[in-house]
Structure formats: structure tokens, C-alpha cells
Amino acid sequence: MCLNTIYNIGAVLLLCHAVVQAEVTAPPSLVFSANARTCVTESLGLLVIRIRRPSSDKSRMTAAVAYTNGDAYSTTDYANNVTTLTFGRRKRNAYLEVPIIDDLVVESREVFSVTISASGYDDITIKGCINDDDAAVLFDCNRYGVSCKAGVCPPSSPTCDCSSATGRTGYDCGIIQSNINGAGCSGMDCGSNGQCVSDGSTGACVCGSGHYSGDAGKCERKRTTITSCDNNKMTICMNPINLYQPLITVSGYTSTECTANPVGGITDTEDRIPSDIQGQCITVGFSGSCGTYTTTTQGGNVCYTIPYRIQYNPIMLVASDEVVYGNCCVNESRQTISTDAILADTATTFVNKQQESANFLGVKLSATLSNGLAISNPVPLNQIYRLCLNIADDGFSYLGLIRIIVHNGQTDSSRKEAVVYGNDGCSDESGKSIVHSYPSRVSDTQICMQYRPGYFRPGPAAVVHDMNYKLCLSEDQAGCELTTCGVTGNRKKRQTNDGRVESTANTTVYFEDDITAASQTNGDTSVFPTAKSCLHEMPVMFPAIIVVCIVALILLLIIVYMCFLLMKNRRKQEDEDNEVKSQKSRMSHRY
After folding, report:
1. How far apart are alpha carbons 23 and 571 in whole angstroms?
2. For residue 252, is it left (φ>0), alpha (ψ between -120 and 50) or beta?
3. Which end of the chain is least crowded, N or C, by CB within 10 Å?
4. Are the CB atoms for 471 and 391 separated by under 8 Å?
5. Tens digit of each residue's pLDDT (9 = 90 or more) over 84-95
């Protein structure tokens, strides 16, 4: 019976061993990692997506690339001809380059999906998004050298009043209503931004305010384009300016080196200006005779911003001039990942056009009013606003704050800053004045705090929030715990630079100020994760099988011991019986 029991338990143990062996040796699927969403400005022409594989896979391999249309279509918005992605031997990163079609049509942001698949890997799907930048400067009859063709120009309106010009229409009262879609317009297509006018057998497209004649006569040409960007210089074109011919300079510099020239007069030896550009262009180095421009460096990406001024009156700076903030970013491989031409109207003190401008590490930092509505204009000084930091990379499960500094964006002796959240969780004396509520944890992946508006003097009516944060996996949660103001000791030490992943996100908030020449519309600063290898979760059944096997082994040892005692007692009893028999035998043979 004991032998049968032992044999049965032995079979169980052999089965457990086989199952454990299967659990241990069965290779899990490998996992690609990438930004959940990667965006690019349409005029850049190329969307670059970084894909990373685990460090354990060092062989040369090829992955398949598949595309799914969303708002963006492969026939009109992007090209789907890149169908494979190759990882070199011992190379963790591969870069997928998706060609973007610049259609010169004003659109909202468009999205499509890219799926990467390979043998032994789980599929990964990434959202690609295209930020449209097809826009143009609006007509303003109050500008120097601009006038109404009929009617009058009201001092409070950029468009002409045609009420006194009978039969006239259009932003400059230049269209005779009876000529719209006349006999000569047969077969002509001016697009949605213009209309055909004919006073006989020949028609012509008259473009609406803010648009110019583009391909095939359609009214669709964009206003500003950053045609090239690298880690040394940027080329920007105002395309085309054939109506006003203003002076375009790098803000604050009036030398010929810092002034844009018509495309026809530019000898571009580096091919930085596309052939279809019709306006004025200028190439500016990030450090040189037109100024030195500081960089924003986060998560391996470097971004540069240069301000340009479009001056309509050649001898005077006026409120109807425009300011363009040219912005471009390059990644750690020195590939251009983002460009923007942000147009600010100095007369109305808000930005007409602003887009997501850079890819950073791990989080999304957003600024809202206290009621949760997005900030779309400069904030009044009596209005509380809110900043929230959210994890944008699903590979991390916990978010922590190390330090928050508010500053005026300067880097030299004019720099001013205030600590609003320090290593001990407290602000300094200067930071207290703008803290409405200290950071609080909304969830494991979100931290928010509220601010009272305030900015430095002298300086612009704006502050830059630099948030130094830490991202942790579930097992490292203790290293991401929020520090409470006034707590010292070990909690304070956890806020120092010992995290698994640590970086800084920033956003700028602008405030109302009558003496400030130009302000920007506030908006989200989107930041995205650096690709990383993910830890595989241990299967749920594996620990249970280990426990069952251990219990079975203990039972086996108990049964073997009991069988040993039983056999020992049985042998003792047999010895006693044999002794009794021997004594009886000796007594029966005494005589």
C-alpha cells in the first residue's frame, strides 16, 4: 500500500516537474515599444517613428509594416509604400519613415494607424497624426501700402466696407458681383477659398482673404513654411507674399544677413528651398550674426525657436506687423521630427495658429482653467489655473514629482526663477505667492496642482513651468511617492535623482498685460515616451503550480516516514514473536 502511494505521489511530482519545466522553458512573446502617438507638421514631408525591441534580441531582423486609414488617407495624405522595417545586428532602434503629402488644403489634424509585426513578437499599433499648417496672412486694409479697391476702410476693421460701392463685394471691394461665375468661368475650379470672376470670355480666380493662387490656379497656397531644419540652422519661407512685399527680418536684427530675400534672388547651394516656394526665404543659424537661440533638451530631443518679424511699413514698427515663431526639433539621431510656423498677431495679442511642437519623454503636461476648460487666451491676473501631469506611456504604472521651478525663460544674468515644489515638497518664499494648491495625486498616473497667476518683472507677461518628474514600474512605486511639504528624512531622499526614468516637461502660461507686445495662446504641450523594453509579467498559474508541487513533496516525505515507522514496528513485532517461539522450543526439549 505504501509503495503504491509512493508511486502515485512520484507520478504527481513527475507531472509537476514536467509542467514547471514547460512553464519555465516556453518562450514568451517579445514586445516592441514605441510612442503611442507621433505627430508631424504637414509641410515637413516625413513622419519619423522610432520602434525599439528588447535588449535580449540582438540578431538582424525584419518586421512587417501595415497601415490603416483614419481621417488621413494613404492616397491623399500619406504614402504607405514602406512595408518593412529592418533592425541591424545588435541595434535596438529602427526608424520608420512615412512620407507625408503636403496637399496645401486647410484641414484639421488627421490620424492614421501603423501596425508593426514580426515572428515571435506581439503586434504593436501606433497612431500617426498630421498637423495641418496650410494658412495665410489675412488682408488688413489698415496696413501700410494696402488699400480698398472700392468702398472705405474702417479704422476698426481689417476688411473694406462696400456699402458705399454699389454692386461691389469681396474683402477689398474688388469684385463686381455681376461678374462672379460669368461666361469665362466655364470649367474653372478656384477651390473652396476663392471664386471665379469673368467680365467676358476669360475668367480668373479671386482668392479670399488669407489665401493665394496655388497649383492650377486654385486658392490654397500656405503662408509660412519651414523648409529645412537641423541642429545648426533653420530655413523659413513666407510663401508667397506677392501682394504686399513687406520686410521680413529676424526679430531685433535689421542687417541684410538677417533679412529674407525673394526666392528668385536666392542661390540655394544646400537645396533647402523647394522649387514650388514663391515668396521670401531666409536661413538662420541657431548661433551667429542673427543671435544665439537657446535650446530645449528633453528625452534626447533638441528644439530651437527663432522669432521673425513681418514689417509692412519699411520705416516704422506698428501693431499690424506680424511675428512668426519658427520652431523646429530634432531627435537623438539628428533627424527632424517637428516644425511649426506659429503666427502671432501683435494687435490682438493672441496666436492665430499654434500646434503641437515636440516629442518628449513619458508624459503629457496640460494647462487648463480651474473649471477644466482649455486655456485659449492669456489668463487674467485674478483667474486660477491648473496644471496636470499625466503618464503618456502605458509601460509605466506610477508617476512622481521631484521638483517644479517657474522661471522667465531667460538663461543669462536676467534669468529669474522661483521654486514652487522642491525636494521637500515645499515652495520657497517667492514660489508661495503663486501656489494656490500644492501637487496632489489624482491617480497613480496623474498629478495636478493649481496656481495663482503671476510673472516676473522685468520680463514678459508669462512664466515657464519646468516639471522634473520620475516614471516607475509597479515594483518601484516607493521611489515615485509624492513628498509631503515639511517631511524630511528618507522621504526626502527618494525625491533625489535615483529614479529608473527621470526627465523634465515644461509648458508656458501667458497672462494679460497691456504693455506686452505679443502673447501666445496657451495650449497643451504633448510629450511622448522614449521607447523601452517592457518586463514580462510572470504567468498567474506558475506560482500556483510551484505551491502544489511543494505541498506534494511534503506529503510524500510524511508518508515515507510513516511507512518507515510502520515497517520498523512490524519488524519488532516479528522479532518478539520469534523470541517467544524459541523459548517454547527450548522448554519442550529440556529433557
Report:
1. 45
2. left
3. C
4. yes
5. 999 988 888 888
